[in-house]
Specification:
Number of helices: 3
Helix content: 55-70%
Structural class: mainly alpha
Keywords: Ammonia transport, Membrane, Transmembrane, Transmembrane helix, Transport
Order of helices and strands: HHH
Radius of gyration: 17 Å
InterPro entries: Ammonium/urea_transptr, Ammonium_transpt, NH4_transpt_AmtB-like_dom
Largest sheet: none
Strand content: under 5%
Organism: Corynebacterium hadale
Membrane topology: Multi-pass membrane protein
Distance between the termini: 21 Å
Subcellular location: Membrane
Shape: elongated
Number of domains: 1
Length: 78
């Protein structure tokens, strides 16, 4: 998991350059900032909502969690 996360973080600058190259001359900076903004938003979304989906517990055979069951990393001691 750690290796996969590291590879994705290394991929993000290349993806920003790729999207910047695909955009027009006026939109290069906007496209690159948009790609880098995802690196800041995705961890926050995971901590707030993805945590409860990862550690579903007993809800629906442990596959689907209640979205707010462990909102904001609440209850990691289970």
């Amino acid at each position: 998991m750690l290796m996969s996360a590291s590879l994705v973080l290394l991929m993000m600058p290349g993806l920003a350059l790729f999207y910047g190259g695909m955009a027009g001359r006026q939109n290069v900076l906007i496209m690159m900032v948009t790609s880098f903004a995802a690196m800041a938003v995705v961890p926050v979304v995971y901590v707030l909502w993805g945590w409860s989906a990862s550690y579903a517990g007993d809800d629906i055979a442990g596959i689907v969690a209640t979205p707010l069951q462990a909102f904001g990393v609440r209850g990691p001691d289970r």
